[in-house]
């Protein structure tokens, strides 16, 4: 439930999402410091009866307010580039999951196993009491504490496969296969939605991942086959 008490990013359920939250907090602190400094200078000029001509023009002041923003951008750019390369790196995935976007539902294929594929439709609101407009009839079952690779495409228009708590957001383009990865570090249900406006039912194609331990996952694979 969205309330003012949780008006923030979702709790991280993967190491990459933890790094994204750390970077968000790091950048926010820098922005707050810049806002306070600029606000203080503006207020001091507004309520000052004297005009400081050295503050309005001069070689030294021009040099200072050119160098300071450059240093500030370095403190933002380096962590950002590190995080960007971490998001693209894939290390020996245990399972490959293929997600295909349709108007307006998702279909999934477990590429490492034969005949494990299914469509995932949103459960109608009148059929369920909890997780309104978020739950689906066929959830994605994945093992926790394992590297997962996901391949994403679409059959008709552009969609976007997004699970915020895992830090995953990848466009699903027709005729193109995009790739990403994630690592789920705890069991539970993780909800996502299509984040690209794809038509009239764009808001009704949710994503649900159910994270379980590896033993239960193997049992699920055997029972499904």
UniProtKB/TrEMBL annotation:
Binds a copper A center. Residues 1-91 form the Cytochrome oxidase subunit II transmembrane region profile domain. GO terms for molecular function: copper ion binding; cytochrome-c oxidase activity. It catalyses: 4 Fe(II)-[cytochrome c] + O2 + 8 H(+)(in) = 4 Fe(III)-[cytochrome c] + 2 H2O + 4 H(+)(out). Gene3D superfamilies: 1.10.287.90, Cupredoxins - blue copper proteins (2.60.40.420). The chain crosses the membrane at residues 28-51, 63-87. The keyword Transmembrane applies. InterPro entries: CcO_II, CcO_II-like_C, CcO_II_C, Copper_CuA, Cupredoxin, Cyt_c_oxidase_su2_TM_dom, Cyt_c_oxidase_su2_TM_sf. Keywords: Copper, Electron transport, Magnesium, Membrane, Metal-binding, Mitochondrion, Mitochondrion inner membrane, Respiratory chain, Translocase, Transmembrane, Transmembrane helix, Transport. Its cofactor is Cu cation. It holds the Pfam family COX2_TM. GO terms for cellular component: mitochondrial inner membrane. It is a multi-pass membrane protein. GO terms for biological process: ATP synthesis coupled electron transport. PROSITE patterns: COX2, COX2_CUA, COX2_TM. It is found in: Mitochondrion inner membrane. CDD domains: CcO_II_C. It comes from the Eukaryota. Residues 92-223 form the Cytochrome oxidase subunit II copper A binding domain. Component of the cytochrome c oxidase, the last enzyme in the mitochondrial electron transport chain which drives oxidative phosphorylation. The respiratory chain contains 3 multisubunit complexes succinate dehydrogenase (complex II, CII), ubiquinol-cytochrome c oxidoreductase (cytochrome b-c1 complex, complex III, CIII) and cytochrome c oxidase (complex IV, CIV), that cooperate to transfer electrons derived from NADH and succinate to molecular oxygen, creating an electrochemical gradient over the inner membrane that drives transmembrane transport and the ATP synthase. Component of the cytochrome c oxidase (complex IV, CIV), a multisubunit enzyme composed of a catalytic core of 3 subunits and several supernumerary subunits. The complex exists as a monomer or a dimer and forms supercomplexes (SCs) in the inner mitochondrial membrane with ubiquinol-cytochrome c oxidoreductase (cytochrome b-c1 complex, complex III, CIII). Belongs to the cytochrome c oxidase subunit 2 family. This is Cytochrome c oxidase subunit 2. It comes from Quasithosea sythoffi. The gene is cox2.
């Amino acid at each position: 439930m969205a309330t003012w008490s949780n008006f923030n990013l979702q709790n991280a359920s993967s190491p990459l999402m933890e790094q994204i939250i750390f970077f968000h907090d790091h950048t926010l602190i820098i922005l707050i410091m810049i806002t306070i400094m600029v606000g203080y200078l503006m207020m001091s000029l507004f309520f000052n009866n004297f005009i400081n001509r050295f503050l309005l023009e001069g070689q030294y002041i021009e040099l200072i307010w050119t160098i300071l923003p450059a240093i500030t951008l370095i403190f933002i750019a380096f962590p950002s580039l590190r995080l960007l390369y971490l998001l693209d790196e894939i290390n020996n995935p245990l399972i490959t999951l293929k997600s295909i976007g349709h108007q307006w539902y998702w279909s999934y294929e477990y590429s490492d196993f034969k005949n494990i594929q299914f469509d995932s439709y949103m459960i109608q609101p009148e059929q369920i009491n909890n997780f309104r407009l978020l739950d689906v009839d066929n959830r994605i079952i994945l093992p926790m504490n394992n590297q997962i690779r996901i391949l994403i495409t679409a059959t008709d228009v552009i969609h976007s496969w997004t699970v915020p708590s895992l830090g995953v957001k990848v466009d699903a383009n027709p005729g193109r296969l995009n790739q990403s990865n994630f690592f789920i570090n705890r069991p539970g249900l993780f909800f996502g939605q299509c984040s690209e406006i794809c038509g009239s039912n764009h808001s009704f194609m949710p994503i649900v991942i159910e994270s379980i331990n590896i033993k239960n996952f193997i049992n699920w694979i055997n029972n499904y086959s």
